[in-house]
Amino acid sequence: MGRKFLVALGGAMLTLSMAACSGGGAGSGDDKSSAKPGDLTIGVSMPTQTSERWIADGNAVKSKLEGKGYKVDLQYAGDDIPTQSQQVDQMITQGADVLIIAAIDGTALSSQLQAAASAKIPVISYDRLIRGSKDVDFYVSFDNYKVGVAQGTALLVGLGLLNKDGSKGTAKGPLNVELFAGSLDDNNTQFFFNGAMDTLKPFVDDGTLVVKSKQTTPEQVATLRWQQETAQKRMENLLTSSYNDGSKVDGVLSPYDGISRGIITALQNAGYGTGAKKLPVVTGQDAEIASIKLINDGVQSSTVFKDTRLLADQAVNAAEAFLQKKEPEANDTKTYNNGVKVVPSYLLPIVTVYKDDIKTALIDSGYWTAEEVAAGQAKK
Predict the structure, then answer these.
(1) How many CB atoms lie within 10 A of CB 5?
(2) How far apart are CA 289 and CA 296, in angstroms?
(3) Cα–Cα distance for residue pair 59/70, rounded to 1 Å
(4) How many CB atoms lie within 10 A of CB 67?
(5) Are residues 44 and 62 in contact, defined by beta-carbon separation less than 8 angstroms?
(6) What is the pLDDT of residues 62-93, one digit of tens each?
(7) pLDDT tens across 117-138, in order?
(8) Which is nearest to 304 in space by CA: 269, 340, 353?
(9) 12 exposure class (CB count in 10 Å sphere: 0-12, 13-18, 19+)
(10) Is the overall model pTM greater than 0.85, yes or no?
(11) Residue 33's pLDDT band (boundaries 50, 70, 90)?
C-alpha cells in the first residue's frame, strides 16, 4: 500500500470525528480551484463491461472530462465487488482529485469512502446511490421512481389497457403477467419496482391483471447482478411451474433490456412467437441496441431511454464544481436518503420508447444510427 493510503487509514477516526462536527462530506478538501485541468485526475469507477450501457457511460464521462483537459483513470470492475474496492483504493492512493463511482453493491464501499474523506477527495455517486456512508457528496441519476412508473405504464399500454395518451384502452382482463426486478444490492431496484407496482396495483387489485405465479415481492422477483441468464432461467421456471396448464403469459414487467432479452429467449424456446401463441408484452430499460432492434422488429414492446450523454454531463459538472470549491447544482435535496444522510442529487428526465419513437428519440438525437438499429449492433 502507498504511504498516502496508510496515512488516510491512520487518520480515519480523527477525520470521522471532525466530519461529525462540521457536517461535511469528502468535498470539504484542499483548494483545487487554481489548478490547471491537466494537473488534476478524476477517478471513474464503473461496474461492468458486460452491459453496453455501462461501456457507454464510461466512455461518455471519460471523453467529456478529457475534452476539458482533465486526466481520467477509468476502471471497470467486471461485476466483482472486491475488484471494484481494490480499484477505488488504487485511485485514492494514486492521488485522484475527484471520484465518480457507479457501485456494484451500494453498501460495499464504506471503507473506501472513509479513505477518500480522509484524503479530502469528493465522491460523486453515479446513477446507483452508494448507501450507508456519510462520505457521499453528490448523486447524479435519473428520476428512478418515474422510470418504474414509465415501465408499468408501458406494460399497460402494450397490453391495450391504456393508450399512449393515458386514456383507457379497449383490452379486457383478466390478463396474466409476471414481474421481474433488478438486483437487490442496487438502490435503484426498489425505486424502479415501487414506481411500476404503484402503477400496476389498481389493475391487480381489480383482477384485470393476474400474477399467476403469485411472486410479487422484490425478494421473489429480483435478478442478481441484473444478469440476462439469471432472468432467462427464472422465466423458464415460471413457465414450467405456473403455465403448464395451457394458460399463457400476456405480459412481463422487465426493468432492464438485458433481463428482457433473457425473458424473451425463454418465451421463444417455449414456443411463444410462433403460430397463434404470440409473444407477451415485455418492457425494458436503457435502450440497448440489441433490444432496440427487437422493438423495431416487434419482439420487445418498449424500453425506457436514459440518455447517458446527459448523465455524463452532470457528473462532469459536479466534478468541476467540487474542484472549484463550489456546490454542484442539485434539483433534488429530499428524495435520496442513503441511510445516513440525504444526498443532494441532480435527476434527469427519461423517455419511453416504443417502435414508433425509435427515430425521433434515438436516431434523430444521434444516440443510435438507423444502420445500428437495423443490425442490432453498435459500430465499433
Answers:
(1) 17
(2) 10
(3) 14
(4) 10
(5) yes
(6) 999 999 999 999 999 999 999 999 999 999 99
(7) 999 999 999 999 999 999 999 9
(8) 353
(9) middle
(10) yes
(11) low
- DSSP 8-class letter at 72: E
Q: Is 127:140 a contact under the CB 8 Å cutoff? A: yes
Helix, strand, coil tally for the chain in percent (to 5): 45, 15, 40
**Other C-beta atoms within 10 Å of 197: how many?**
19
Question: At residue 85, what are phi and psi to the nearest 5 degrees?
Answer: -60, -45
Helices and strands per DSSP (H, E), number in the chain: 14, 12
- Supply the pLDDT for residue 30: 54
Alpha-carbon distance of 158 to 203, in angstroms, equals: 14
Task: Provide the CA 332 distance to its chain's centre, in angstroms.
Answer: 18
Reduced to 3 states, what is the DSSP secondary structure of residue 280?
coil
Residue 371: CB atoms within 10 A of its CB come to 10
105 within 8 A of 185, measured Cβ to Cβ = yes
Angle made by CA atoms 277, 281, 284, in degrees to the nearest 5: 140
**Which grid cell is 7?**
496515512
Omega of the bond prior to 174 within 30 degrees of 0, cis? Answer: yes
CA dihedral 261, 266, 267, 268 (to 10 degrees): 90
Mean pLDDT of 356-364: 98
> Read out DSSP for 115-176?
HHHHTT--EEEESS---S-S---EEEEE-HHHHHHHHHHHHHHHHTSB-TTS-B-S--S-EE
Tell me the pLDDT of the chain averaged across its residues: 92
Q: Quick: pLDDT tens for 140-167.
A: 999 999 999 999 999 999 999 999 999 9
